[in-house]
Design goal:
mainly alpha
Length: about 80
C-alpha cells in the first residue's frame, strides 16, 4: 500500500475516532483495522461497505457526521483515496 494511501487511511481512522463516543473506540478501531486489511487485499467492495462495514460502524457515530465519513469510505472503495 502506498504511503499516501496509508496516511489518508490513518486520517480517516482519526476522524472516525474523534467523531465517536470514546467508549466505542476499541470497537471502532477493530472495525477500521479489518476494513483496512480488506482494502489492502482488494476485498473492500461496494457490497462490503454497504451491507457490512458501514452498518456496523455507523451505530457508533453521530448522525451529523455520518454522510461525510460515509463518503470517505465510498471513495476508498472506489480507489479514489
Amino acid at each position: 500500500m502506498e504511503k499516501q494511501v496509508k496516511t489518508e487511511l490513518q486520517a480517516l481512522r482519526q476522524a472516525l475516532l474523534a467523531a465517536a463516543d470514546p467508549k466505542a473506540a476499541g470497537q471502532i478501531n477493530a472495525l477500521v483495522t479489518l476494513g483496512f486489511r480488506k482494502l489492502q487485499q482488494g476485498d473492500f467492495t461496494a457490497a462490503y461497505v454497504t451491507y457490512s462495514f458501514w452498518p456496523q460502524l455507523a451505530v457508533f457515530l453521530p448522525e451529523a457526521v455520518q454522510p461525510a465519513l460515509h463518503a470517505q469510505l465510498v471513495q476508498l472503495e472506489q480507489g479514489e483515496a
